[in-house]
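Hi V.,

You were right to ask for the full record rather than a summary. Here it is.
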Amino acid sequence: MKKVIFSLVLGLSAMAKAQTYVHQVYVLNEGNFDYVTNTQIVPVTLGTYNPQTQVYSVLDTLENMRFASDLVISGDYFYVAADSKIIKYNKLTNQFVAEVVCPGVRNLGVYQNKLVATRGEYLSAFNSYLHIYNTTDLSLIAAIDTVTGPKWAAQNVVIDGSTAYIAVNNGYEWGNEKGLIGSLNLTNLTYGNEVDLGVNGKNPDNLVKIGNYIVAVNNKDWSGSSISRIDLSNNSVITENLSLASTGCGTSCLRDGNISYQIAYDIAVNEWNVLAMNNVGPVNNLAMSYYELAEDETNNFLYASNTDYTSYGKVYVYDQSNNEVTNFDAGVAPGTIVFDVRSSLGVTDLTNDFKVMPNPTSGNTTVSGNYTGELLVLNNLGQVVLTTNMNLKTTIDMSMLDQGTYFIKFVTSPASSTIKIIVE
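Predicted structure:
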């Protein structure tokens, strides 16, 4: 029997938002490429973290890729942008499906059967910085040229309805950075209506949509940083400076309606109020140099990675009050963290097929049923406090737990069940 202090859990529908749960967390590790010697020291890896078991495992090693830059989920599949390729995987099996060569691919977005890919590369010019692929077979639908599309390297993508907002930054041509947000009509694949973020809004990296606003975190000319807000009702722009240093490789995310961000080489995490366009940070309890920030909206957790870029990568998980609840080792430079959120309504319920006796209990309780699988004991916050395995019947010692209400959860693919138990 193993004592566990934290887990995001399957089921517990009444306790989860909109009856959803985080099934797994994808982590895209950029590895370590030596650009001086042109040598791959640590390969790019794709990993998955299971919040139920707290186990991290490597799904794939992306050979001959210098780095990886994005991962998006759509339906039963997910897509990875890695250096010169877009790779498609089956989300249900985590198996490779297909790939397509796309030199300089940076970020991805999905709309219906269309996969939008932005492009950019240091010391390289392309005839097209915006590709659209068929999500089924990754065949090229359109390459928007530099006459009718973005004229410079593009970065982040935000899909809103049938419009893709594209951050055009030219971030690979030092001293000639741009600050444009373009719009791609995903119905007829026409590009236009670029909005200029102004002299202080150059080099937009991260891009998010909040209400009727598009918000960009900008790295300017890498000697400073700013935040820009575009009002989509009239395309008006407000840009405010953040610091005389950049935000590194886009260490920022949307969290509780505000932008959480970190300045390069700093250990404080700040918070920006998008409506008031002012700083409301720094955030308490977060004091580490992070590489990636990502919000788990289902459970109100913040995932934040830390790395030395050469030998290790670790992901920390914080609750809404920024208390660390767990951490796990990942690959080198975990730069993308994405949550596989699923509906608990699709999980088969075995409640009538396994029994818990006695209930209530002050000591041992026996779980029996014609099944084998993992048993989780959760408190009323959804945190795992005990785990064990069930082989038709097993006895759990509940005497170490405080009095109160708990849930015994039986997990076996594709079925599960949760029964309430009282500890007296």
